[in-house]
Protein 1
Amino acid sequence: MNPDGTIVARKLCKSFGRHQVLRDIDLTVAAGEISCIIGPSGSGKSTLLRCVNGLETVDRGVLQVNGEDFGYVEKDDAYHAVRPQRLAEQRARIGMVFQQFNLFPNMTAESNVMAGPVLVQKKNRATCREQAQQLLARVGLKGCGHKYPAQLSGGQQQRVAIARALAMEPTIMLFDEPTSALDPERVGEVLAVMRDLAGNGMTMLLVTHEMGFAREVADEILFMDDGIAVERGDARELLANPREKRTQAFLERVL
Amino acid sequence: MSPLLAEEKKRITPKRPRDYVAWAVAIVIVAALVWTAVTNENYRWPVVFSYFTTRTILNGLLVTLLLTVASMGLGTLLGLVLAVMRMSHQRPISGLAQLYITFFRGTPVLVQLVFWFNIAALYPHLSIGIPFTDVSTPVDVNAIMTPMTAAIVGLTLNQAAYMSEIIRGGFASVSRGQHEAAESLGMSAFTKLRHVIIPQTMPAIIPATGNQVIGMLKETSLVSVLGVADLLQSAQAIYARNFQTIPLLIVASLWYLIMTLVLSVPQSMIERRFSRSTRARLTPAATAGEPGAGQSVATTRESLL
C-alpha cells in the first residue's frame, strides 16, 4: 500500500518550558482524508499541526508522515534528529497554509507560486511559470500574477498562499486557521478553493473555527482542550452528538 | 445678494498675524547673517576663495574620502560578521559580539583613535605565526601603526559596532512567519536567506547605512588629532603657517557641506524609494469583483523606473 498522504501520531508530547501543550496525542489521517482539529484557543491544536511539518519539534512519541518517521530516525533506544537537508526534503512534500498568509512581500503573486519549484526543486523556470499561471487560475486569480501581495486583498493573498503550497505538488496540505485573519465577506472565497481541493482527493489536516465547513467537507474531527485529544470521530456524528461534556460545552458556545 | 448658492460658496480660512510674523522673523535672521558675512572683514572671503582649490586642501579632501570609503566598507563587513554572531543561538558567540558592541559604542571614538595610535605602548611586538609552533614572524607594532593605519583601524572598529546593530535591526524587522513560510516549502537555510529574508532586510538597512556614511564623512575629521593629513588637518596646516584661521576653517566647512549635500541626494532618493514601497503596502487593496479587481498601485519595481 502506498503510504503517501498519511499522517500517524501516537502519544505525541510537546512542552514549551514547563508548560505541556500536547499530552499523548493520537491522530491518524488516511490518504485522501480530510481531518479537522477544533478546540478553544491555547488548546494546542496549532502546535499539533505545526509539529506535522517540523515548525515545532516533538519531545516524545511517534510521528510518521507519508509513511516514514518525520524529522527523526529511530535508532537503538532513541530517535535521532535528521540533517537539515533531509528535513527540508520531507517538508517539501507537505504544503502549509498560514493564518497570516505569509506571502513573500518582495515577490509578485506569480513569483510566490514559483518560489518552491524553482528555488527548491530546481525546475525549469518557464515550465514553473506556466504551472503557476494554471494554479492561480485554479484559485480564481487568473491575471493577478504580476501583482504584489500588498496589492491583493486578504482573501486573494490566502488563495495565492494555497497556490504556492500546491505548486510543490504536496501529498498533504496543512491549514492553520486559514480564514481567521480574513474579513467575513472574504472567508467564502478561500473556503471555496479548499472545498475544490477536498473534492480532488487531497489529504488535508486543518485547524479551523469554521464549524459549518468542517461539517460539510471533513471526514473526521478531533476536539482538543488543554493539550489533550478529548474526542475524535466522524465529523457529522461528533458535531451532532458529542459524547464528552467538554466537547458539548464548546460546541454549544460556538455553534 | 450673492449669485452663488450657499452650497457652492468657497470656504476661506483668513491668514492670521502669526503667519506673517514667522516669515518676517526668518527673513530678518537670514538678512542679518548675510549682512554680517559680507560686511565683517574678518571673514576674509578673498582668502577663502584663494585657498578653496589649492593642492593641499584637495589632497586633504581625497584623504577624507578615502578614509570614509575604507572605514565604511571594512566596518560594514565586520559589522555583518558581528551581526551574525550576535544573532547566534550559541550564547558564548552572541555574548562575545555583545561585549564588542558595548565596548565600542560605550567609549568615545576620539579616545579609541588615540588609543589605537598608542597601542604599541601596550603591545610593542606582535608575532604572526602558527600557534604552538616555532613558525612566526615578529612585527614591530610601532612601525605598522602609522597615523593612517590607526585612523582606519579606529574608525572601522567603531563603525562595525554601529553597523552590526543596523544589520541586526534589519533582520529583526522580518517576521517569523517569513522564515516559517520559506522553511515549509523545504528551502535550505541559504536559499531562504538569499531569496526571502535578505531582500526584506534591505528597506531597513540601506537608508540607515546611508545616514552612517554621511556621519562617517564628518567623523573622519577626528583623525586630524593623529596628524593624518585629512581635510581638516590640511586646513590647520595652512593656518598654522599664515594665521588665517577663520578663512581656512570656512574652506574646510564648505567642503564638508558640499560633500554631505552631494551624498544626501542619493540618500533621499533611496529613502523615498523604500518609503514608497511601504506606502504601496498600506494602500487599500482589491475590492469586490474578481479576478484582478485590485486597485492599480505603483509597485516597488515599477516605481524605480
Protein 2
Amino acid sequence: MATAFMVGARHLFYGISMLSKYRNMGWKKFYLIYTTSDETFSVNYSMDVPENIDRGWTYFWVSFLDQMYWVAGAAIGAVFGSFITIDLDGLDFVMTAMFIVIFLGQWEKDGKRLKAVLIDHVPEFIGIFGSIAALMVFGPDRFIIPAMVIILVLLLAFRKPLEKNMNKKESAT
Amino acid sequence: MTISQMIITIILVIAATVLTRFLPYIIFREGKEIPGTVQYLGKVLAPAVFGLLIIYCLRNVNFAAGNHGVPEIISIAAVIALYQIKHDMLVPMAGGTVLYMILIRIM
C-alpha cells in the first residue's frame, strides 16, 4: 500500500492545482477527480475554456475520452499485441514529447518577456532542476517523492517574490 | 501469493490510489474559502509538476554510457523547434517521436 501511495502521491499536487477549477460541478466532480491522470490533469489545467462553454462538461469529456483511450488502447493492445510484427521500439517517446509540449504551453502562458524570463518561470526551473537533483540522489525508482518535497519547499520559499510577480503580470494585462 | 492475498493487495492499492486523488478535495471542501497558501500553490505547482513529469519520462536515460542520451536530446530539441513552427500538440509530438524512433536505430 505504501508503494501505491508513493506512486500516486503526485495526484495530491494535481488535486491542489485543480481545486478552484473543479468547483461547483455537482456530481461530475466525483468522476473528474477519480479519472485524473497525468495527461488529463495536464490538458484540463492548461485549457483556457471559452466563456460561453460549460467548463464542467468540457473537463468531463476530456476526462472521459482519455479514460476510454486508455481502456480501449490497453484492451486492443492485450488482444492484438502479439499480431504486431513491425518493430515499434521507441514509440513511448510520444509521452515525453507530450509533456514537453504541455510544459512549453505553460511556459508561454507564464510570460514571454525576455527581460523577465527568469522570474516568470521560477516554478518551471524549480520543477526541472529539483527533479534532476532528486533523480541523481535517489535514482530512477525512488525520486518522485523527494522531488515533490523539494518542489514544495522551494515553491513555498519563493512565495513572496513569485506572488509579487504574478500580481504585477495580472495588473499589466 | 494466494488468491485472497492478491485480492487484498488489489483492494489496498485501489484504496491508496483513490485516497491520493480525493484527499485535497476532502481537506479543502467546497463552500469554504481555500487558504492563501493553497491558492498560491494551485497556481505554481502545475508548471513545476510538468517539469517533474518530463524528468520522470527521461529517468532511465543513461547519459554516461550507450548512446549517451543523444537521441533523446536531439528529439527533445526537435519537439521544441517544431512547437515554435506549428503551435499545436500533434506536429511536435509526432515529429519528435518519429525522429526519436529513427535515431535509436541508427545511433
